[in-house]
């Protein structure tokens, strides 16, 4: 079927309808230039259809989960409680041929790598539940069921399930690290817990910027990546930065906006000026009042010299009055008297 192209064969048959050999040659060249790409496309389409039919007929289903989630893989085969002593159930990974668990005579045995995080379901539709998924759990899992017949165990059912474990990077976080120099601020962008290896870009207005330091590390146990990057910028200008992380064919991003630096008056200076304003505004009216009172007092107070003359005159008058009334006190007393 794939050795010859039906469309090209049909074109060759219709080609013999042309009467002249020149027309034959011309039409043959045109036919080969225009129809061969179509034949190649048909072959590719047929292969894709057959591949899809093969996957459908093979019974491989797919379960997609994220890291640390829970996956349930089913075998699609009914087993009653009475048949447990006559069947064996095996779950194993196809790629590495690792046995996950086995059920023999109704008793389940979990292999050490999956112990404490794999739970089997035996009756009805046999299945396994894998907890705390890891990247290494991605594989095709085969469920094989054997039944005791005629003194031996014969395979009566098999099912393959493809488990795909994803590790998506969360939205990165951007934080400020301070000012390494005057008018220069440093920010950092980080994200962790993703796979495959990430690539981080700083963008502004669609243009890539130069980061001062970018670090990518991988945890040896979980195989998950962590990425951290730092960027310096001038605070005297407005900025809108985008931290973009690309991993595989997926991306995740975060935006950081900055308004240019505006000098401000320190709080203590502002407070001092406020108190000065209050003092001045209160002192001026008080000084005016004091000046008015001082002027009034000066106008109302009698002259000091006049007051002294008046006092002396009054004293003389009092002395003369005393002499008039009591002459004994006004002359000296003789001894004979």
Write the layout of secondary structure elements.
Blueprint: H1 6-15, H2 21-58, E1 61-66, E2 71-74, E3 87-93, E4 99-104, E5 107-110, E6 118-121, E7 127-130, E8 139-149, E9 152-166, E10 173-181, E11 184-194, E12 199-204, E13 207-209, E14 213-218, E15 225-234, E16 239-247, E17 250-258, H3 267-300, H4 304-325
Helix pairs in contact: 1-2
Brief account:
Helix content is 31%, strand content 37%.
Radius of gyration: 53 Å
Task: Please state the oligomeric state of the protein chains shown.
Answer: single chain
Which percent range describes the beta-strand content? 35-45%
Structural class: alpha+beta
Shape: elongated
The count of β-strands is: 17
Considering DSSP H and I runs of 4 or more, what fraction of the residues is helical? Answer: 25-40%
Order of helices and strands: HHEEEEEEEEEEEEEEEEEHH
Compute the separation of the termini in Å: 182 Å
Describe the sheet with the most strands.
Answer: 6 strands, mixed
Q: Flag low-confidence runs.
A: 1-58
Mean pLDDT: 76
Task: Please count the helical segments.
Answer: 4
- Strand arrangement within the widest β-sheet reads 1-9-8-3-4-5
